[in-house]
Amino acid sequence: MQFVNQNSTTxxxxxxxxxxxxxxxxxxxxxxxxxxxxxxTKSDKWARRALAIANIIFCIPSLSLFAVFVxxxxxxxxxxxxxxxxxxxxxxxxMRNVYDGVKNVDRNVLEAAKGMGMSTGRIMREIRLxxxxxxxxxGFRITVVMTTGIAAIATYIGERNLGRFISEGLVRxxxxxxxxxxxLISVIAVGLDxxxxxxxxxxxxxxxxxxx
Amino acid sequence: MSWKFFSEALFQKAPHALLxxxxxxxxxxxxxxxxxxxxxxxxxxxxxxxxxxxxxxILNILQAVPGMxxxxxxxxxxxxxxxxAIIALLVQSLLPIVRxxxxxxxxxxxxxxxxxxxxxxxxxQILLEVELPLAMPIIISGIKTTTVYVVSVGTLASLIxxxxxxxxxxxxxxxxxxxxxxxxxxxxxxxxxxxxxxxSYLEARITPPxxxxx
Lengths: 212, 214
Prior knowledge:
The complex is a heterodimer. By secondary structure, chain A is mainly α. Chain A has helices spanning 2-6, 8-40, 44-59, 62-71, 79-103, 107-115, 120-153, 163-171, 175-203. Chain A is built from nine helices and no strands. Chain A is elongated, with a radius of gyration of 20 Å. The model of chain A has no long low-confidence stretch (mean pLDDT 85). By secondary structure, chain B is an all-alpha fold. Chain B has helices at residues 3-44, 49-64, 67-78, 82-106, 110-118, 123-154, 165-175, 178-206. The longest helix of chain B has 42 residues, at 3-44.
């Protein structure tokens, strides 16, 4: 507790940096992967390829991915590398869930919509997206929580965020520092998860909820 | 970049690091299977079903905690070395297997179970000869998730002195030796992609053709 009082300014600064990184990464991911997930429903061949790539990227250990980006000259240490890695990680949960959600809509509903004379674009906007919402939102929730966790690791490539308490604490064998960092990150991650879970309940109609 | 450092990293440092990493993965995943599968089975039996949701919620919350934080917390609790790292990784590797075991067992068609008990099979026989084999593809898929996760977070285990491939990466970052970075990171990536591929293959192999999903 004393540690927290003494270092409140640093804690606030690191938390701010952490959220900045997570927010930017999530925003870019949304802009990139939601449209591409929707586009992929047009072509099975490309969908299979893109999802395979996303799966491979998702497998790569986060520390490895950060480390590899550091060696690429124009990325280097710092935010660009961290952002790129986080956005690539988000590809798997986000693009996949958008694709699944939009693709796996009940065929009868689609036929009915077509029979009513709806255009493809309107079917996408008024049928596929709303009905796919539960799956899409589940993907969004996973992305946010995961990004928060992985962002902490970016401290090793020069991000000044909450992960720094852990890395510095380990180097200095400062237990208070480690515990502060670890608990802060955990609380934020669990808090975000719970909060998004509540939002999920609001956004998603009762009948369509995904069980996690 | 120099070949000297590269070969030093690849041929002198990497084999040991890789072995330690594999050790961490195998021990953690085996322990996770030994704990999670029976737990999942227990939580689907009628008498214990009411604990199921509670257990799943607790594990769900644990899952949201970042791996780095769990590893870091293991240090003050259990000290340095391999054992604390394995305990920390184990905590988070339980959920995917428990969840998939439960999902797999609940997914077994009731008619099949009734047919089995109509044939005079005991509850134990139904579990071992009907339910588990039918749920196996889903359980394997959970094991796959866990394995990839352990390989990935295992690179952080070097933070608390457990060694492994993270040791090369951290060393490379600290000394700015890109050769070490590339060897450590590359091997880590290859290892998890390999496990993902191998377990996917196993999953596809043991799925009976009749219940395969595209």
